[in-house]
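Q: Protein A?
A:
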Amino acid sequence: MFKSESRALGTKINNRHMTLGAIVLAGGAAKRMGRAKMLLPFKQTTILAQILKELQAVKPVAITVVTGYYHEEISAAESIDQSLLCFNEKWEEGMSSSIRTGLLNLLEKQHDIDSILIIMSDQPFLNKNLLQEMIDQQNLTGKGIVAAQYDGIVGSPVLFNKKYFKELTKLNGDKGAKIILQQNPVDLITIDFELGALDIDEASDYELLQKFLKEKNADR
């Protein structure tokens, strides 16, 4: 089957059958950056707002943005829909705590979700085409996990079928859902996301991002 034909079929299946939810993780303290990196300017908005724009283009039935250390700053941001926010009181326990909080909040909003996207709030080049390809590939292959792959890493964003929801609610520590990917290689498919490696952890990363945008004229 040709790639374009596969994509069209996958979209059709998606629209008919998959009830998609999404969790955006924005709870960390960003210690190396020293400020709310998800609210840094990007293109004509902020990194977080741009991510949400791309995410909304694949039409999830529910989105939860899990906040923590920077809850007040994110709540005050005009570019962010405040109805999407969910404060994780235990954000200091790490990423797993935010995943648990986000999933439970999503299921309260929409109890019949079939799959969830878990997305980090510091990957500015996340885009709707990548997310749609992940959705299509889960439908076409039947794999329970679809993850992005970049720079030798298999990670965010990740799409999980509902059969993994129970495991996600039992996660602990700050390594997120990596353990589930490692334990289920046969049920995992990866999608190349070359620019996924350009996340924002330090001020130098943001400077590199701005340089990249200027060189590629990508902010137009």
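Q: Protein B?
A:
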Amino acid sequence: MEIRFDGKKALVTGGARGLGLAIAEMLAKNGADVTVADVQDEAGKAACEAICAAGGRASYVHTDVSDMAQVQQLYAAQERVDIAVHCVAIMMPDAWLEADPEKVQRLVNVNVMGTSNVVQETLRKMIPYKQGKFLILASIGGKLPDQTIPHYRMSKAAVLSMTMTAARTAAEHNINVNAICPGIIRTDMWEKQLLPDRAQRMDLEKEAAWDRIIGNIPMKRPQSPEDIANAAAFLCSDLAANITGQTLNVDGGSCMQL
């Protein structure tokens, strides 16, 4: 079944690269008019140019989601928002006892407060129209306890909690709020931060560490940005009209739940 978003206004925070870009491309390819918001200006503008060159519609707005004034300005400039997808997060691989408090505060500002800011402004924009699809990217790291990346896991657990409470607030206004928890995807975050740290902890070369990590996934393969974008397409469509407050794990079976 083809999913179309013709006539829909979509906003993707963190859409300049990685999973956010894959989702922005998917929405535009299927008819949505997409606004990409990010702090990576060069990448964001290039992404929108590529989307337009492929026949889609996209524009870029510089936005630091940890700054509420910038988030408010972003939403004020939108005529309406039918679909919002929040994809912004930063990573720090430091263990509990090695963490720099300033780095922890920055992570909380972006991952937790940034999500809170976007939740507030998304709901404020959608509620008057009594409709909308709001999707937040979390992580299986927010569900699975492990000694690695503890602060990132903490922040994503907070994001999952916000998803459920936002869904409760939005439900009476016919707005769906859901989350996707990606598994292991070799994005820049993994390539530049997580994988070198894991390889060092495992005392392995990078590729050997990657192979071992992938071997622990029940389906024995990594996920891809396209996997996440496909899941996003469903949750942002009318096919998911009666789904809200839920988390969809796209992880090859790494986090199985009743």
